[in-house]
Design brief:
single chain, 2 domains, 4-stranded antiparallel sheet, binds flavin-adenine dinucleotide
Length: 196
């Protein structure tokens, strides 16, 4: 899996502080470096809506469709995912669960070869991509770009970095959290305990 942080709101914490201080008419209290403490107070109060003014965009590649199906359920996230209608899955890449040992891994590879052959067979018989894809596995690798605001990312990370989350979505969200936290330390600090 490859994950890249494509874009993040500049001076995100200062922007969140500015927006939230509008609520309290307290801009006089804003100083160099005051945003972190101010945001910590917002979070402690449960006043999370100012976090919606900052957002981030990630590019994820080499994730299974099993994982992306879970990720894209988050409704406040914007998603652009590689299509299985417009892009052929001939010779598709796939993700292997780490639970498989070497021997099982070889059998799994053979299964994937069988499915590649099934896909090729149906394409050769004239099916369009949109129908041939019915035989594809959840393991099929996908690529997507996602954008969400910081409030939604906090929600996603809280659920998906949890220890009982499924391994692949946990890995993806853990890596996204590690990339995002340095860009807005106060916003994501409390979530680091989920992954440290
Ligand atoms: C451990 C776990 C197990 C799961 N198991 C299953 C399963 O077996 N089957 C299944 O179908 N799904 C399952 N899901 C997915 C889950 O049902 C949600 O689809 C997913 O978590 C995304 O929705 P969300 O409510 O978390 O928040 P998001 O869609 O990310 O939205 C963020 C927040 O916005 C608010 N919000 C968004 N939309 C609405 C709305 N329409 N009305 C009111 N408030 C809204 C809510 O406060 C929500 O928490 C599972 C998720 C987890 C974390």
């Amino acid at each position: 899996m490859q994950i890249e942080l494509l874009a993040v709101t500049e001076k995100a914490e200062e922007l969140i502080e500015f927006a939230a201080r509008v609520c309290y008419r307290s801009h006089a209290g804003a100083q160099e470096g005051s945003a972190g403490k101010f945001i910590a107070r917002l979070l402690a109060m449960g006043h999370e809506s100012p976090l919606e003014h900052a957002c981030a965009t990630f590019h994820l590649q080499g994730c299974s469709r099993a994982m992306t199906h879970q990720l894209v359920r988050h409704r406040l996230m914007s998603v652009s995912q590689q299509s299985q209608r417009y892009v052929t899955e001939a010779g598709f890449e796939y993700v292997t669960p780490p639970a498989l040992d070497k021997e099982d891994g070889r059998e799994y590879d053979r299964d994937m070869e069988t499915i590649r052959a099934m896909y090729a067979k149906w394409k050769a018989r004239g099916l369009k991509n949109e129908d041939a894809r019915f035989v594809l596995p959840n393991a099929c690798a996908s690529t997507l770009v996602i954008t969400a605001n910081f409030r939604e990312f906090r929600h996603i990370f809280r659920l998906r970095c949890a220890r009982h989350a499924q391994w692949e979505i946990r890995e993806a969200c853990t890596r996204m959290l590690r990339l995002l936290q340095p860009r807005a330390p106060a916003v994501f600090a409390d979530l680091m305990e989920l992954i440290d």
